[in-house]
Amino acid sequence: MLSRFRKKHHYDYDLIVIGSGAGGSVGAHYARDLGKKVAIFEADAIGGECPNFACVPTKALLHASHAYNQSQNLKFLGTEVGESSLNYHAVKKWKDLVVSRTGAAHGTESFQKDGIDVIKHKASFISSHEVEAGGKTYSAAKFLIGTGSGIFVPPITDLEDVGYITYREAVDLEKPPGSILIFGSGAVGCEFAQIFSDFGSKVTIVNRSNQVLSKEDEEVGDLVKALFENVGIQVLTGTSVIRVEKKGNKKIVHFQKGSEQYFGEYDEILIATGKKPLLNFAPEKADIEVDQGRLVVNKYLQTTNPHVFAAGDVVGPYLFTHTGYYQSYIAAHNAFSSKKLKPDLTVVPRCVFIRPEVASVGMSEADAVNKKIKIRKGIVPISILGRSNTSNDFDGFVKIITDENYFIIGGSIVAPRAGELIHEVALAIKTHTTARELSEMIHAYPTFSEGIKIAASVVE
């Protein structure tokens, strides 16, 4: 089959992209800019998970929940607006408006306007250069796989029978549940814990790890846990779920921590235990190797089939929209250029949009220890900052990590707008800046960014 196509050198497309999310869309537009004939295949929502079901709607809900929370505390600042009440129907309308304003809402038109064919069917390889979709066969000289990832559901006894929701359903609930158990204390679990707690749900979050946000520095996890508990969120760390059962309208969840077993009753269960790459495109029929649930790619994002490239969640190691966009461009470039690019993922910001926000970049302290890197660190509470005083935001800190020569290699921030602040630390890592150089830079007063300057100045 392969030799037949090589002799003809005639394909339906120069590039077929499977998946219209972050891992596929950028590459599709880039290839089209090169003058290539491109088709993109998508069986689900155009634009993928992030704008339709994940990043964008959750941040819209977080914005609304934060506003609702603030409205209940305005009297302290001298503003009285009467008794606040929750109109969740209006919250949903706000969320839908936000989603409608994304490029994904008009994704089909955007692709077509750029001259990209959109085929709304699931594509599966049937040979090295061919896919089947909707009963038709399509061929291409090159392929870009950007199928993203799906939800990992833990194998818990009777969970499927009892029922649960994921982030997809959670963003479209008609009203907040009276009580909810959230499996998983990563970014998704923590953000929904914040949302539902703000809207009045009784929230419990459970995780087998001993730390909330276990991939971040210990100080981050400890503070987030304490802040959650301060607002009434029950946090069960180092705890396993044995089984679930249904009792009337309630879902009974049985827990185990060490030798102790107990149970709780909840109106709803939300699964936020992670994601797994989607490999439902028959990679084996195109000689594409899979290892440990991910596509095997070389340093140029090229699979074991030399004319098939991949990007985003399906290759990892990060499952972020911003890394998917970045890899998609690299993969499409390498598919059509003799001058290959290597993706550099040493400086990738990580953000959790709870209150206050959590953001980090580079190595955590645990990462450095595991790599036997001798580190220095500086950490300061944001409560010492003038901006904390003027905005009444005192919870949080800034942590800077350097190597033994004071070059910055990592940082964590828990503070309002930490997602924006972290990019100063990211740039410092990217440009091989020392803590002293960062501390000597003038920072505006009063800003939370002064925390970065002070943390850098106390590195030892």
What is the element layout, followed by pairings?
Layout (H helix, E strand, L loop, with lengths): L1 H7 L4 E6 L3 H12 L4 E4 L7 H4 L2 H17 L16 H13 L6 H7 L3 E3 L4 E4 L2 E4 L2 E10 L3 E3 L7 H4 L4 H4 L8 E5 L3 H12 L3 E5 L11 H13 L3 E3 L3 E8 L2 E8 L2 E7 L1 E4 L3 E3 L12 E2 L2 E2 L12 E3 L10 H16 L13 E3 L4 E6 L2 H6 L4 E7 L4 H6 L5 E7 L4 E8 L2 H13 L4 H5 L10 H8 L3
Parallel strand pairs: 1-2, 1-6, 2-3, 6-18, 8-9, 8-14, 9-10
Antiparallel strand pairs: 4-5, 5-6, 7-15, 11-12, 12-13, 16-17, 19-20, 20-23, 21-22, 22-23
Summarize this entry quickly.
With 460 residues, the protein is of the alpha/beta class.
Explained architecture:
This protein folds into three domains: about 1-55 and about 95-150 and about 275-335, FAD/NAD(P)-binding domain, CATH 3.50.50.60; about 160-275, 3-Layer(bba) Sandwich (FAD/NAD(P)-binding domain), CATH 3.50.50; about 350-455, 2-Layer Sandwich (Enolase-like, domain 1), CATH 3.30.390. About 30% of the residues lie in helices and about 25% in strands. The chain has helices at about 1-10, 20-35, 50, 55-70, 90-100, 105-115, 160, 165-170, 185-200, 220-230, 320-335, 365-370, 385-390, 420-430, 435-440, 450-455, and strands at about 15-20, 40, 115-120, 125, 130-135, 135-145, 150, 180-185, 200-205, 235, 240-245, 250-255, 260-265, 270, 275, 290, 295, 310, 350, 355-360, 375-380, 395-405, 410-415. Helix 4 runs antiparallel to helix 5. The model is unreliable at about 1-5 (pLDDT under 50).
